[in-house]
Amino acid sequence: MQRRLPSDWQLQARMVFTMLLLGAVYVVFAAVLYRAGAAVPLIAALVGGMALLQFYFSDRLILLSTGARLVGAGELPEVQDMLGRLAAMADLPKPRLALVDTPMPNAFATGRDPQHAVVAVTRGLLSRLNPAEVEAVLGHELTHVRNRDMAVMAMATFFSTIAAWLAQNLLWFGLWGGGGYGGGGRRNRSGESLGMVMLVSWLVYAISFLLIAALSRYREYAADRGSAVLTGRPANLASALLHISGAMDRIPTQDLRQAQRFNALFIHPAVSTRRGFSELLMTHPSLEHRLGRLRRIELELSGPAGRGR
């Protein structure tokens, strides 16, 4: 039975708004670089080339970085069947399945579009969750594929790190022009221009991080809802999240720290931040908030409108 996932217009609007704001921030950043005498053509060529590589090869880079490997057609048949069935229900092409050989229970989706999507699960996830919970996690990841937010997050995160990278490497890579606009060479020699660019670079990075974190938190809510609609059982995803969160305490700290840089990808962060004001800096909503929303979705689905689906 096909259960076409409804379009999440709030998520689409947030993705467009975030990319527009990030674009405006980087236009200002480029203007600062130009005024300061940077070798803008070289920087533009370098960043443009890296952006193309990120867009077309982000899935391979992420799989390589996380240690995930694509599994064969005859491997993990139960998970392959679940993924294929859920993809058919969601009217999506079946993504490739990847496995990460780590005891940490987690999952993520990557790829620039549904035709090039990969859903990765860890060995720890498969060993700790029951089939119904695994199905709920796969539904969550397929919703990311359906919403195409994984590609937006990959590009947004890439550009947010460019500013910090430039701030650290402008001198080392010779990206700073000798002459430049309006006596930029003299300002560079005094160090004032470079100091200004470094300050603006870190400011741009900070603004970008906050925008991306806000988008990331909402996209997790959207994927939770998609899983609940696709499987028809929000309680299974709630149970999976509880088991994943509880298992994190039994994973070696070193393993969690190594995985922390991929927090934005995972269904549950490897290392969580304390609640409170710091939640503004988190890539995921708190577990309590996610469970609360899933309970409300379960009430919606069990009501008259939900029963009439």
How is this structure best described in words?
Residues 179-190 have low confidence and may be disordered. The protein is mainly alpha-helical. It has 12 helices and 4 strands; from the N terminus they run ααβαβββααααααααα. The chain has one domain (10-307). It has helices at residues 9-35, 40-66, 77-89, 123-128, 131-147, 149-169, 184-190, 192-231, 234-248, 253-259, 287-302, 304-307, and strands at residues 68-70, 96-100, 107-110, 118-122. The chain starts with 8 loop residues before the first helix and ends with a helix. A hairpin with a 7-residue loop joins strand 3 and strand 4 (118-122). A 4-stranded mixed β-sheet has the order 1-2-4-3, sandwiched between helices.
